[in-house]
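step: validate -> pass
step: tokenize input -> pass
step: predict -> running
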Amino acid sequence: MTYKSDFLRTLDARRMLHQLTDAEALDALAARPGLVAYIGFDCTAPSLHIGNLVSIMLLRRLQQAGGRPIVLMGGGTTKVGDPSGKDASRQMLTVADIEANKASIKRIFERFLHFGDGPGDAVMADNADWLDHLHYIDFLRDFGRHFSVNRMLSMDSVRLRLEREQPLSFIEFNYMVLQAYDFVELNKRLGCLLQLGGSDQWGNITQGIDLARRVNGAQLFGVTTPLITNSDGSKMGKTAAGAVWLHEDYLPNWDYWQFWRNTQDADVGRYLRIFTDLPLDEIARLEALQGAEINAAKVALANAATALCRGEAAAREAEATATATFAEGGAGDALPRFALANAVPLVDALVLAGLAASKGEARRKLAENAVRLDGETVTDATQMVSAPAKLSLGKKRHALLV
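step: predict -> pass
step: emit ->
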């Protein structure tokens, strides 16, 4: 289908469009200014990660096309836990933990969206404002009767957990009901007509559309993006060192930049389309590069993605550090730094610097000749290390002991 609206046309061109409801009607609606759409973000950690970035970019594309994004903080739903894509129940967080996480992750959205009171300005809402005040029996009578348990059991978030014989708590089973109710509330409060999300949210989104039609006669819409995986089939954003956090408090700018710089050749064009604002013709030029020249496209991806999330200065500093570290054999200013007051065994230094998750992993890397100290390969786990020193694991991971 050829879309008329800038929003859907952009999503299609940037390969961010997977499923949508009533494409023709939604396209006509999106062609008019002021389309209001939302995505929910639960407060399960103090930082969002790369897995959330596709959703954030969806809201950014909406605002760029003249729509009004709603960032829905899951102050209420985090108390329940979304079972989508999970093999086990989420850890139950205290109210204090949820509030602290909420305050921490709010900061990231201001880097991608413009908030304010204008018709195209982004809005931040919190579903605790209505979920925390529900009366259980009244809610069941007014809304629960519109949900079919048969249909709920067929949803991927439930069905896959049951097929794997993984436990699914009753509180998690209620998650899709609460998310559907969120859509109804946002439609009533803010005129929201569209819910955006990843493909794993399709069932939850359609439940909300159906609920709004049943209780209010409202016509709502849904759009999902494809599941983002690397070309080798692995889950994007998972590294040996753990999650790729969006907050610099939890992942240094250098590591964030380096994550994008290490993108596999086959994924560069796709990630440039989704995670940067570079023009499509420039992306086509970059992804056509071959051999060693593809590294220029990876640097462009790293610079553009880092500038969006961490700022232009962070991107420039990280690129300068990469040049100093790899091309010139030095140690640039953006390399992660770790304070070391006294000499420690090499195996402890590797763990301290975040190059190994445990002493056992550190010993294995030493045995594989994968560790260098100030550029020289080292293998003795008991060798004492004192600051200043540069530790390297493989060719791409470095840290300074200061």
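step: describe -> The first helix runs from residue 6 to 13.
step: cleanup -> pass
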